[in-house]
Input
Amino acid sequence: MPEGDRLQKFPFKGFGSNDELSALAILEMVHYQVIEAQSLELCLSSLVRHQIGVRDDQIIEGVHLLPEQVQKMMEEPANAEQIKALFIISADEALQLEAMRNNSSHFDWLSGASDKTYESVAGFVVAYGKWIQEECEKYQLPYFVRKGRFEEENVEILKKLMV
Output
């Protein structure tokens, strides 16, 4: 992909370890995530169609699959009974911040980040979650709001997907 196209389709640069984002910058980053998701729509819908075709169950996790896109895929007759969707969001910045600080994963990209970066990322996660929640309501898709009980919530989420 030519660099100009790449910069236009994938404007989100991620977070640095010293980012201190204003509320406006956080909203701009939410917009960037939406642009990236739209840029990946063909790729992700092709992946979903393929997985359905080979009858291979998958959980797709991440920020690049939007409620509108999922609704479109579910409207396709071959996919209607095959796709189960549940969007997982955070609605509380304090809970999100605590969860990020307690992350014990070996892949903690925030390790060593400044307090302001943690706060900025928590603000972004909640702002994007709010946008996703509004889109889920618009397209009548289910969503799950995290409340800070990560392991127990994961069990609830899996039960909802297994129905």
